[in-house]
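Supplementary Data S3. Sequence and structure tokens for construct A.
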Amino acid sequence: MPTTMPSMPLPINSYPPSCVPAGPRSSEQGPDHMPRPPSPLSSSRRLGRNAEIARLGVKVGTNYATTAAKKLFASAQRKEALDHSRELKNATEIADRLGNMKGALMKLGQMASYLDHGLPEPLRLALAELQNNAPPMSGDLARRVIEEEFGAPVSQLFVEWDDIPIASASIGQVHRAIIADPTTSEHRAVAVKVQYPGVAEAIAADLKNADLLGAILAFGFKAFEPEEMVAEIRERLSEELDYTREAKNQQEFADFYTGHPFVNVPRVHPHLSSARVITSDLVTGSSWAELMQQPQDVRDRAAEAIFRYVFRSLYRFRAFNGDPHPGNYIFHLDDPKSIRITFLDYGLVKHFSEEEMTVFKNMISAAAINHDGAAFRRIIEDAGLLKPDAPVTTDQIGDYFSQFYAPVRESHVMHWTPEYSSSIVRHTFDRTSPIANYASVPRAFVFIQRINLGLYALLGELRANGNYRRIAEELWPMVNAAPSTPLGQAEAAWLASRD
């Protein structure tokens, strides 16, 4: 399991998992009869966004100042109550304003809602609403985007179309439709993801407000210095805006996992996909919230399946789907003794070179298999993770990194908890660590750390149990151990059928 030094995982770009039939269909209108609706992110709206950003910063700052004044002569108990009241006010302000904005700010709010249970509870709960409740654009506007992309009205492209979206997210929303499959002529239910008009400009405007981005982030991670994270967001979001790239990524994963016993990736329909639209098979099933209501043994299998998907993709496919988020999973729970998961959203995928993979494997061998601190230090210095000759001891380096490798360093049943996952996040951003002064994060490692922290958060929320060292040994190519669980046996049979 690769890991690295402190770096903030990037925000998400996903849509909620439970794709259910949409509401009543609106009347079918051709493009000649549709009024051209204004973009929800037009220039006037962008000016309004900047005003919203400014008001949000002022409001949060005012709440802090007011509370500080009230605390001057308050008792300890009263100070605690005032702090809680301030957190609630700021949580409401941030969640309400982000929920009505498309782009980078909302993505930050979504990221914070699931990453760390160490956030103030009122803020975490308020931001959690952003995961699945982004305000949608109108059905007419979604139709207009599709017409502009394909040069034909929705009524000609689809057998049926639902104007009411089944899911919405930070840069696009999803509509249910029926198509005539071009290869078989059979009718097929599809999910059509449509990008919000003007979202690219909105994100660019958001990223100019780096100070506010940092202030919002610091609301949960008070010791974190956000400059590098903001720069990374600016670069990566441009990739997520290209739906052509996302469709290619998704189809690559779908091809790789064809026939897999517990991993499913929806097939893309390229003739109805473009730079701003992705059409793929519609998948229905249970959401993360519904999974959380299942018995612990079901959640344990789900956790193991997600873990295997993440690291099987890395070691066999040399790629990461960089959005470990509850809204990106659909769970198929028909068999009480097994599980199957559909993995969604491939806007942020990182492919690694053989050289980068060699570094990752060498780190694991030194830290988790051989427990060789001196070798581990040499590896991370050569990789650019730690400055050569940094005035820290090899034991200090080992103590710091052992937190990340703890789940797979020894063969034992690991009991994940939200508190444990939260402690790893806080450890990552501990600027008082002697390691932090001499660490850097090479480009290849930013995605690794984002996946690790996001995955830890998910396993913690599931309260997963399992011998993750033995599971990891099946996935590590330098070990390639025999299957240790029923899911491992099923996957081994699938791998054998491919070789």
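Construct B, processed identically:
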Amino acid sequence: MQNRITKLIFAFTILLTLNSCETIAGIFKAGMDFGIFIVVAVIAVILYIISKLFKKE
């Protein structure tokens, strides 16, 4: 019984302290930042390969 009450108090504390919209916004912001990083990295690799292909030595 005590364990169940502890779990309920913990769950209510989490529900009251975490705003779900803020949590989801944080997840999407992190995903967007990672996506931008990947796009920049892929463009850099493509430009590097193109510069090596057309460079005449």
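Residues 24 and 30 are 10 Å apart (CA to CA). The longest helix spans residues 20-54.
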